[in-house]
Design a protein that fits this description.
Belongs to the AcsB/BcsB family. By secondary structure, the protein is an alpha+beta fold. It contains ten helices and 39 strands. The strands form eight sheets. It has a seven-stranded mixed sheet, sandwiched between helices. Strands 1, 2, 4, 7, 9 and 10 form a six-stranded antiparallel sheet that branches. It has a six-stranded mixed sheet with strand order 14-12-15-17-16-18. Helix 6 packs parallel to helix 8. The protein is flat.
Length: 764
């Protein structure tokens, strides 16, 4: 992985490139130039025949998947088939630019020693079609067995489902499907192997964001970004918008955006930003841009890879073209589009992310589900139903906060005399349970979802009940009585099939929740991209880079913005990109700062953490005349930059605005830069980061508390006072004693006055 990353982040003047690689790249460039000369990139490119050196598919590449990682949800640690649960499903996807020529399932399993050999078997299905049947032989019983099942590659689609069905018998007649002797364990070493070829897709903008972001595949997206040289802030802004859109589409899969200067990546689809005056050499034959343009063409020297050209007369045109690319539901047709009369959407209000639940209104479950049958379960043993939803990362729960689920459901009636129950859970914590009626097939309940007071984002540990990330699940179970007997006196009962359906019109109503957070807190950024994600289109965010920033720094900036977009689900249409000299553009903005590791930071310690925080606070302290110069820590480009082997993320109060936050990323070209970008591109990484400074090492992360804190949000003053006292028990005791003394003194004085008035003549 390290070598692959370094290959993708090399610049055009890297002296370490071998002469052989240079020759190959020159041949590729020459081939591309010939193709361009014959009109491949012209306006009539769609009508031109493909060059003779291209084919419809490339050489076969083998790819393997751990079968256990294909279990829906991706969190399974074991797969065990039983008589009551005989089937297990596995989901996987195929990219639109790939075709599977061969496939096989390498299955390792251990069957129960109590099975009857010959009559017990394991069936393999692909998209509902039977692929193979393996009889359980006497030699397999109680021992690990390995088989290889060929799969029909022609049956594979964009989304596929592989299923294993266990048919087990432990006696000839009068069996109990729930008997503990009926089991078959699937080993975690089982693998799905695909022989795949890449296909040459047509050059058509209508398929965007495919193939640059393909959600049919569950793996992360890697989209290289190419500039002709050191880009302007407008070009960087355009890149942030495009990559942010790709990251929002990729969502939980993760995304990585390595930056290149003036050369095409060695592999993969990529996006290039160019103007008439500043374009990479491999675009020399591209016609002059007439305005904001989007063009999809074949990558130089590639059999199937595509490049998206975001072009324009000026750098400002690049921003317009990028915004057009990132606008959902905007259909572009053909290989080329000139963007005319385009108007970007107005900035979004706070907390408008489509990925977050708006706690100001009651929310039906229909708005939270992803497919129609998500709230329906059928079978002898019903699988749990899951609905996921998020709260805004700065949500704060108090003793007055409530989340009430008005639950409506339908179910098959249980057999008379047998019990059935529906349980509602939030993140594994039991919220409520209802007995299913034998007289009616409909039911309703008011369920109070459990929660713990404090910030919704779990900082330093998991929360019980409601949190920022929530899994609302419903588990239905029916009592089953299936007594077995002897062939002469058989008392076996067939286990009936059941069904449970949660009505999508069931509503969750929130009350008493506030937006309140104590900053700086890196955990809020790593888990919820806060405070930048408060405005989903980043209209109040500014990314700050140095003049002449290196490719690794720009990669970090794009990955950080991509992580925010993956959290909000919205492209950063209105993000600001500036250098530290352009402080006027940074007013009233939360700052996302990227730079090299400051000089003198050579270890992981509280002193280094304080020094980094101080360095960020002084980031804009240089006089305006010197702000554009490279700092002494960066020196001349010829000097070797020290690679500390670790990176750092620092959050402080913004140096330019007391009510704003700055989050800075520090790393170098080598291991630390690779490490930081690997962590940023994976949404699940850095989840345990907390505090004001985090050092990212090879194996772990170290967090240090900030030197000072401040709060943001809309919590009422009296609750803020209570929160400030809640962590100080001695202050609470003192206040209670003081209140008791004041109250007692008041009562004493009142009683004395009252007694004196009673003793006065003429007073009753």
């Amino acid at each position: 992985m390290m070598s692959s990353f370094n290959l993708r982040t090399r610049s055009s003047d890297a002296s370490s490139r071998s002469s052989a690689a240079g020759v190959i790249r020159s041949l590729h460039a020459a081939a591309a130039a010939i193709a361009l000369a014959f009109g491949t990139l012209s306006a009539n490119a769609a009508d031109a025949p493909a060059p003779v050196w291209r084919t419809d598919a490339t050489a076969t590449v083998s790819q393997s998947f751990d079968l256990i990682r294909l279990v829906p949800g991706g969190l399974a640690t074991a797969v065990k088939l039983t008589g009551a649960n005989p089937t297990q499903y596995f989901d996987f996807g195929i990219r639109a630019d790939e075709v599977v020529s061969q496939a096989k399932l390498e299955l390792a399993f251990t069957p129960s020693p109590s099975l009857i050999p010959g009559t017990s078997q394991l069936n393999v299905y692909l998209n509902g079609e039977l692929q193979g049947v393996q009889a359980i032989t006497k030699e397999m019983l109680g021992k690990s067995a390995q088989i290889s099942v060929p799969l029909n590659a022609k049956s594979m689609k964009t989304r596929n489902q592989l299923s294993l069905e266990f048919v087990g018998h432990y006696q000839i007649v009068c069996e109990n499907e729930g008997n503990s002797s009926l089991w078959l364990d699937i080993s975690p070493s089982s693998r799905l192997t695909l022989q795949k070829q890449n296909l040459r897709l047509p050059n058509d903008l209508a398929q965007l964001p495919t193939p640059f972001a393909d959600v049919s595949f569950d793996g992360p997206t890697t989209l290289p970004v190419v500039f002709a040289g050191s880009p302007s802030t407008d070009a960087l802004r355009a890149a942030a918008i495009v990559t942010g859109r790709v990251a929002a589409v990729s969502a939980w899969r993760g995304s990585n955006f390595p930056v290149y200067f003036s050369e095409a990546p060695a592999k993969g689809h990529f996006v290039v930003f160019a103007t008439n005056d500043k374009r990479p050499a491999f675009l020399a034959s591209l016609p002059a841009f007439e305005g904001p343009e989007l063009t999809i063409v074949d990558a130089p020297g590639s059999l199937y890879e595509k490049m998206l050209v975001v072009g324009g007369k000026t750098d400002a045109d690049l921003v317009v073209a990028a915004q057009a690319f990132a606008t959902p539901n905007r259909v572009l047709i053909g290989p080329h589009a000139l963007i005319k009369d385009f108007k970007v959407a107005e900035p979004l209000p706070a907390y408008a992310s489509p990925n977050w639940v708006n706690t100001d209104f009651a929310v039906p479950l229909s708005q939270l589900i992803e497919y129609p049958e998500q709230l329906t379960a059928r079978g002898e043993s019903l699988p749990p139903l899951h609905v996921n939803f998020r709260l805004a990362p700065d949500t704060y729960l108090t003793s007055a906060s409530t989340a009430t689920l008005s639950l409506l459901y339908r179910h098959s009636k249980p057999v008379s005399g047998q019990a059935a129950q529906l349980r509602t859970l939030v993140n594994g914590a039991l919220a409520d349970s209802q007995n299913l009626s034998v007289d009616a097939s409909r039911g309703s309940a008011i369920v109070e979802l459990p929660m713990t007071e404090g910030p919704a984002v779990a900082l330093g540990g998991t929360r019980a009940g409601l949190a920022a990330f929530n899994d609302l699940s419903f588990e239905a179970s029916y009592q089953a009585v299936a007594n077995e007997g002897s062939p002469e006196n058989c008392r076996a009962a067939t286990m009936p099939s059941h069904q449970i359906q949660i009505e999508p019109s069931s509503m969750i109503e929130f009350d008493g929740m506030f937006h309140y957070a104590q900053l700086p807190e890196i955990g809020l950024f790593t888990q919820g991209a806060f405070p930048f994600s408060k405005y989903a289109d980043l209209s109040q965010t500014a990314a700050v880079v140095r003049d002449g920033a290196r490719p690794i720094e720009l990669t970090t900036m794009l990955n950080a913005v991509g992580r925010i977009a993956a959290t909000t689900g919205v492209a950063p249409y209105h993000i600001t990109v500036a250098t530290q000299a352009e402080s006027a553009k940074l007013k009233d903005k939360d700052l996302l700062i990227v730079g090299p590791m400051p000089k003198g930071i050579l270890d992981i310690s509280p002193e280094s953490a304080a020094a980094l925080a101080d360095d960020v606070s002084k980031w804009f302290a240089a006089p305006a005349a010197d702000a554009g110069k490279k700092p002494a820590a960066d020196a001349a480009s010829e000097e070797a930059l020290l690679d500390t082997g670790f990176a750092a993320i620092v959050s402080v109060r913004s140096p330019l605005d007391d009510g704003r936050t700055a989050v800075a990323f520090f790393a170098e070209d080598g291991a630390s830069g690779h490490l930081l970008n690997t962590r940023l591109s994976n949404p699940g990484d850095l989840a345990t980061a907390t505090g004001g400074t985090v050092f990212v090492g090879e194996d772990n992360i170290r967090s240090f508390a900030p030197g000072s804190t401040y709060t943001v949000g809309d919590m009422p003053w009296f609750r803020r006072v209570w929160l400030s006292l809640a962590d100080r028990p001695f202050v609470l005791v003192f206040c209670a004693l003081l209140a008791a003394i004041v109250a007692g003194a008041g009562i004493f004085l009142f009683m004395r006055r009252w007694i004196r008035r009673r003793g006065m003549p003429g007073t009753n």
